[in-house]
Structures are given as C-alpha cells and as structure tokens.
Amino acid sequence: MAIVFVSFFAIASIAIFANHTASSERLLSRANIYQSICKRDPVRYAKYCQKAEEFKQKATAARIKENQNPASSISISPTGPCRPIGDVNRDGILDDQDAVAILNHRAGINIIPSNDLDRQTRADVDKDGQITSSDASLIRQYLSGQITTFPQCPAENSSTPTPLPSISSRGPCPPMGDVTGGENRLDDTDAQAIVDHVANIKLLSGFDRIVRADVNGDGKITSIDAALIRQYLAGQITTFTGCKVALPAPDTDSDKDGFNNAIELAIGTDQFDACPDNLSDAAWPPDFKNDKSVDLSDILAVANKQGTSEKRYDLNADGNVDTKDIDIIKSYYGKTCSN
C-alpha cells in the first residue's frame, strides 16, 4: 500500500510541474516533495533522496540565474551575505559545495578540525556554537533566495554598528606571520605555507621564516597559527598573541642541546627542554625514542625517511630529509642527554 501511495504521489507531483516553467520556486517545491518521500524510508526510497538533492541543486542554479535578471526582487551575492561566513571551503565563493562540506563534516567525512578556528567559524552560520545540518540548510536557503542573511552576520540596521577593524598589509607586528618572506606582506599564502608545513607537504626552511610562523607564540608551528593569520586577514582579530613575545635570534639555543630554537621549532621538538621527561616528550632532536639516548634505531629512523619531507626527521630544517640529516644523527650515536 505504501509503495502504491508513494508511486502515485511521485507521478502526481511530476504531472503538476510538467506544464510549468522550471522556476527556482517550483524546483524547490519539487525537491521538497521528493524529500518528503525520502523521509518515509531513506533506504527503500533512496532514489527519491537522490532526486531531492538533484532538484535542490537545480533550484539553486535557477535562483542564481534569476538574480541576474533586473526584475528579480531578491539579490544574492556570490560571496554570501557577510563574507567569509559560509565559505567553508575557502574558495572565495558561497555555493552548494560549502553546504556539502558541512554535511560531510556531520557525517564524519572530511571533518573540519577543531583547531581550525577559521573554518569552524565560517561553518557556524547560525551562530549557535555548533556545526550542524541547520548551517548547511541556511546556506541553501540563501542560495535559493529564501533568506537574505545569516544569524552570524552583523545586523544591517544596528544603531551601533561595529566598525571594521583596520588591518595592515604587513600584519599587526611585522615580520610576524610573513612566512613566505620576500614580498614584505601578510596574505593567505603565508597561512597556506604553515598548513603545508604541518601536513609535511612542503616544509618551511630558513630560520627567520620558521620563527615568524609561530604567530601565537606557543613555541610550536600548528594549524592554529595559520587560522590566526586568516582571522586577521578577515578582520576578525586585530593582533597575534605572538606579537607580545619577542622574536628570538634565529641561532639562539635556549636549552643548550646543540640545536637552535629555529630548528627545534621547525621539526617540532621542545626548544626550551634539552632532554625528554618521559617517552612521549619530544625534547632532544636526535632522540626519536625519547629515552635520553641515541642508538642504531634512531639512525635507522632518519635513514628510513630519506627522500621525504617529514619535518621531525629534517634535523637541519632545510626542507628535506637527506644524507645531511643522516650525518647529523650519526654524530650523536652513543650519546645521552640530561636536564
């Protein structure tokens, strides 16, 4: 009985729309009909779930096309109502891919890291402190012309509008953050350089640039540093916590362990601790077991990474793991450390 009802419902809905122009409103209505069928049993009626998604996308495309017509009563911006809110994939455009990114996050696919504060903020369009399907729904409602703003956007008619912060093209405290160097400017390429370093895609090299990457001054290079640069560029913050920390000279060796601060910052060891306190404390660069000694297993650890760009094994922080790094680890063979 249910199958007969659903089939009749689907055929009737198609007949209703068959003789009408495919406006965004009608496409969205059709998507809603398919969605109502889908909700009855998503497994049995999977094809209707697919149809619902298909017509939502068609409605979005139709709305964008309609907004190019001066007669349209609702105008939407390709960057969203209050850039960068909603632009989850950071491509500079608000589109259905951003909604899909949120849904994938909720489904456990391509999760937005909790320490990526920039993307977390962009995805929380309803400003409830969580990333949910409601955020994706709001993006699609905006794209289809059903709403004109997001809850996270500043009120247009606020009696006390928040002034946009003034940001410098060089950053809040040059050269902090200017990781790529050369152009004497802070931009997204600096943030991306940090992301690539953390992901072992392309390691930072050059002691000055390495030290500049620690914009929050916590003694580590992490995705949080990249997020802070992007927040500054978006006008969400006006300074870096690292601005209050004096940049050390690149060749400073605070813990006197034979590796300067810039190298330890780049490879991820503790620049202020000369020897491990426990087996999980990466403090002495040549000691990969964190057992306060260097033996054959440490040498092999570096040798096995030769030809890669894994930062922990790049003992001279030149951007590559090669014979130079093997020579360095060999020079420490049989040695121990102490605090």
UniProtKB/TrEMBL annotation:
Coiled coil: none annotated. Keywords: Signal. Residues 158-169 have a biased composition (Low complexity). Residues 81-152, 172-242 form the Dockerin domain. Pfam families: Dockerin_1. Residues 1-18 form the signal peptide. PROSITE patterns: DOCKERIN. GO terms for molecular function: hydrolase activity, hydrolyzing O-glycosyl compounds. The lineage of its organism: Bacteria, Candidatus Curtissiibacteriota. Gene3D superfamilies: Dockerin domain. This is Dockerin type 1 protein. The keyword Signal applies.
